Recover the amino acids of this structure.
């Protein structure tokens, strides 16, 4: 039996990735806080363990910025919950965030491949 080691992810990386993650989840379907926390945990294979104290300020900021809209509703169990949905402005922001993260991801992948080569890698001077 194999045990999975949970990696502690740097707080700055969590903060930087929270907007595109939440917007992407809400682009799929409307959701509420606890369900978003569960999705993040599932999508990351348990590697990202967000808390209420981290998520709700993000949701409030996204709502203030007009990227998401909150509405109160009642769950199947009769519990009152605030459901969030992405707005058109939020979809545009998600598209921009996706482009930025893809650029960062591509650069990191190239760096890691080069760094794994014998002798490592060095920055080549920019041709003039």
């Amino acid at each position: 039996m194999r045990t999975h080691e949970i990696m502690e992810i740097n707080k700055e990386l969590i903060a930087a990735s929270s907007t595109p993650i939440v917007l992407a989840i809400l682009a799929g379907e409307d959701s509420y806080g606890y369900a978003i926390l569960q999705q993040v945990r599932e999508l990351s294979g348990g590697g990202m363990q967000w808390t209420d104290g981290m998520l709700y300020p993000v949701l409030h900021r996204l709502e203030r910025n007009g990227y998401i809209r909150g509405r109160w509703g009642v769950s199947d169990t009769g519990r009152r919950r605030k459901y969030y949905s992405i707005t058109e402005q939020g979809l545009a922001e998600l598209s921009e965030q996706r482009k930025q993260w893809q650029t960062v991801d591509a650069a990191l992948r190239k760096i890691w491949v080069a760094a794994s080569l014998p002798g490592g890698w060095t920055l080549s001077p920019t041709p003039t």
About this structure: The two ends are 56 Å apart (CA to CA). Residues 11-115 form a domain with the Arc Repressor Mutant, subunit A fold (CATH 1.10.10.10). Residues 19 and 58 are 7 Å apart (CA to CA). Residues 88-115 form the longest helix (28 residues).
